[in-house]
Amino acid sequence: MKLVEAAGDARTIGRITGEALREEIREFIEIVRPNDRHPEWDARWPMIRETLIRHVPLVLEEMEGTAEGANLPLETILKLNVPNYGTDLDALEGCTNIAFSDGPDGPIWGKNNDGGPPGKQSPPVARLVRRNDGIPQLNWTFCGMLATIDGFNAEGLAIGHSSVGSVYQQSDLHVPIRLWAYEGLFRCRTLAEFVRHMCAVPTRGKGYSSLAVDASGAMCSLESPCPLTQVRLPKPGETYMNCSNYYQLPALSEADRRPPDQKPNAIARAQMLDERFLGNDRRSLADMLEVLRCHGDPGICRHGGHDGSHTEYSMVGLCAERKALYLHGYPCAGEFIEVQL
Question: What is the DSSP string of 203-248?
Fold first, then answer.
């Protein structure tokens, strides 16, 4: 996984990213074939463009710069970042987020991002972005995509997602949730600010359960069957939370397009984490790394098994220290890289 550092205005950041990732973006395009997924793009684009200009104009400028830097048509980069989720709801079940609001190492967020087997995975990238008008952030995404709702900013705000789904109708009048969260990390210094940002407008996307924590120790889960977002708070007095690939709020339990028998692994991972952490004081960085490397049935470090998911990369945010760790591959088999924001 490359670490790409970019600073300046939005278009300059895009150009630097596109130039640094030319080969990897083309590899990702070959895997996901965005042009095949958007036969109606010409009809959709005017409304999408209006929405991006209204809500995230600098994000649009960055995508324009990425296309220029990568020497690719702009619409190809746009299609990577504004998927047609009416037909893109078949991703493998994966991704586990954990947060501690307190402990010897301060508030911590950790995540394993899961996908297909080695050799068939999309190329990831870590991007350290210092936009002129925003808070510096480190985000993890796939090459050509600006964001996947996994990020950590220089104020110590961390956010990670797990894919779920949404039964609700999607509209190009609504801003794509991944791009809205990316913009939020530039704007928001605290969890409260980020929650207000994410709930301020209806969003468009597959539907996600996300987990966020900030440097003060405030934490919550944002459960987003787009265009809705609801806030799930920690249990009273608890300093730990998780989210995986299902909505834990009872009101949203059927908002994800999947019956209970299609999400047993996601539920089992959350239950295993509750058994491990609820009601005890295991809240250190060592505890976080240990659980990200944990195998079993269910496992958090995933090597295939009955549902086919493999851990692609792992991320940790040490919020009080404004320091992030990440590792490409199975976390049980490598050493984490440190980035100080």
Answer: EESS-EEEEEE-TTS-EEEEEE-TT--EEEPPPTT--EEEE-SS--
* 170 and 301 co-located in one domain: yes
CATH number at residue 211: 3.60.60.10
Question: Residue 148 has which token pair?
Answer: 């996947």
Domain boundary among 57, 81, 105: 81
Tokens representing 36 are: 């095949």
Q: What are phi and psi of 300, to 5 degrees?
A: -95, -40
Number of domains in the chain: 2
Whole-angstrom distance, CA of residue 145 vs CA of residue 182: 11
CA proximity to 104, closest of 239, 264, 259: 239
Give the per-residue pLDDT at 87: 47
Domain enclosing residue 102, as ranges: 96-340
Q: At 89, list the tokens.
A: 């709801």
Element (H, E) at 326: strand 323-328
Q: Which residues are paired to 206 by β-bridges?
A: none
Q: What is the pTM of this model?
A: 0.96
Please give the structure tokens belonging to residue 187: 């704007």
pLDDT-flagged residues of the chain (< 70): 85-93
List the 137-142 sheet strands across, edge first.
2-8, 124-131, 137-142, 151-153, 158-163, 208-213, 219-224, 230-232
- Residue 328: inside a domain, yes or no? yes
- CA-to-CA separations, 53 to 46, 70, 173, 200, 249, in angstroms, rounded: 11, 22, 11, 16, 33
CB-CB contact of 161 with 171 (8 Å): no
What is each CA distance from 184 to 34, 199, 265, in whole angstroms?
26, 11, 30
Query: Which pLDDT does position 20 carry in this prediction?
Result: 98
- Same domain membership, residue 120 and residue 73: no
Let me know if residue 231 belongs to a domain. Answer: yes
